[in-house]
Write a structure and sequence with these properties.
The chain is globular and about 55 Å long. The strands form two sheets. It has a five-stranded antiparallel beta sheet with strand order 4-3-2-1-5, with helices on one face. Strands 6-10-9-8-7 form a five-stranded mixed beta sheet. The C terminus is likely disordered. The protein is an alpha+beta fold and about 220 residues long. It is built from five helices and ten strands; from the N terminus they run ββββαββαββββααα.
Length: about 220
Amino acid sequence: MDLALMSEQHRADGDRDASFYVLYSTAHMHDDVPGLPAMVAVRVQRDRRAGTFGMEYARHPLVAMGEGWLVRRGADPAAFARRGPIAPADRETERVEALLRGSGAHRFEIHDGYSFDTAPYDTWVIATDTLAADPVRPVRVFHDRRQVDDDTHTLREGHFASVEDARAWTDDLDSPLPPAALSPSVRVAAALLGTSSAAAGWARVISTPPPAAPPSGNGRPPSR
């Protein structure tokens, strides 16, 4: 199996220490089932006095999800060192990654996902947010796309009413993702500004700007 280091962290406590890795596996391109997760999160625990070690691993579709799995096994969410050549393209990508990294074991119930093995290497994940602020749209799509020429990637989230609606969106990965609903504080701000559609629209812009649409024209058939 060919593995490339994407993220790592090392911690020590007396005679015990642990290493945490997120690795990219090129073997996912050759699996019998296409679209399987490409990231492998690995935890290695050592007892130097006893001269023993143990390890565990799990597959994940996104680096931040792998880091979140490691955080639940003792890693510090703020101490990961990114080693891969693909950097976050912007602050929104960093925000969504931080959300996934610190979400805990039970916040997101994952229903489906797909990892493409051809450029621009899209990955999408459908999950229900058990702590969704908007109960009408509790389902999220996390969509990651690599900008091959820039060695960067963009990660965005969209909000949907159902898993079926989210799956329908994945038929066209170039279409905009629905943004989050207005928060109560922003609705109050809109009311203070007036009840016109223009005022409400302005409040939406300053609160939750819609994520930028990823580059168009991937030239690939629908994912499902």
